[in-house]
C-alpha cells in the first residue's frame, strides 16, 4: 500500500516512523533524515507536498519526499543537500520505487528530475541516470602529500608565535553564530553575500543542527586565536563517515592558512573517533584532492508521466 501525503501535519506525524526507516536503510545519509528534510521544508516551503509513503504489513517501508513546483516535482531538500534519494528498507526495491513515484504523480506532476543520487540509489536500477556531479571522499586516516604536511607545520608555528592557538571540537549547536559570522566574513571580503546571509538558510541550519546534535551527528571544529574563533567547520558524523558541509574563516588571518589548519585537525579528530571516511561533498574544488580525496559520482534521474504512465527518460 502507498499513501500520498500532501499536508505538513501528515508529514510531521510521520517523523518517528521516518527516523526508524532511516535507521533500517544502511546507505542513507544525514540529508535523507527527518531532522534535515523537515528543517528544509519548514525553512523554505516552496510548493505543495506530494510525498509518497510505502507500507508493507502496516510498517513504513519506503518514503519518496517530493513537492510540486507547478507541474514539476522536485525532491524535498534540493539545492542545499549534497545527497538526495528515496528511502527504501533493504530488499527488492524496484517495485517499491515505481509504486511511490506513481503514487506521488497522482498529486498532478508531469515531470520529475531527481539530482544528487548516490551510486547506491535504487533509481540506478530502474532509470538511465546520468553522472552529473562528484563528491570527493578521502579515506581516514588521511594520506596527504608531503608538501601539505610541511605547510601545516609552518602555518601552525607562525600562528602560535602570534598568540595562543587552540583547536576545539563541539557537538552542540552553540558555534552556529561563529559559523554565520566567519562564513559571511569570507564571502563579504570577496564582494558577495554568502549563502548563510539568507534568513531561510539560517533557519534551516538552526533547526537541523539541533536535531543532529540530539542524534549525536553534529560536529563543529573551531580554531581559536587569543580566545576568538578565526576558522570553523560545520560537519556531520554518522555511519563511520564525516560529512564536511560548510566552513568559514576570518580573512584577516588568511596568511596563516586557518582553513587548511582546521581541515587537518578535523580529519585527525575524525580518525581518532574511528570514522573511516571524510566526504568533502559536492564539487571538484582543488583543495579537496590535497587531502587524498577521490571522486565518487552522483547521478540525476529524470521521470515523466506520459498518457498516465510513469516513464524513465535519460537525464542530460
How would you concisely characterize the structure shown here?
This protein has helices at residues 8-13, 15-24, 34-44, 94-105, 123-126, 146-162, 176-189, 199-215, 258-273, 286-289; strands at 2-5, 48-49, 51-56, 59-64, 66-69, 72-75, 87-88, 111-117, 130-139, 165-170, 218-225, 228-238, 241-249, 277-279, 294-306, 309-313.
Description:
The protein has 316 residues and is an alpha+beta fold. The protein has two domains: 2-113 and 299-313, 3-Layer(aba) Sandwich (Aminopeptidase), CATH 3.40.630; 141-275, 3-Layer(aba) Sandwich (Aminopeptidase), CATH 3.40.630.30. It has ten helices and 16 strands. It has helices at 8-13, 15-24, 34-44, 94-105, 123-126, 146-162, 176-189, 199-215, 258-273, 286-289, and strands spanning 2-5, 48-49, 51-56, 59-64, 66-69, 72-75, 87-88, 111-117, 130-139, 165-170, 218-225, 228-238, 241-249, 277-279, 294-306, 309-313. Helix 3 (34-44) runs antiparallel to helix 8. The radius of gyration is 21 Å and the shape is elongated.
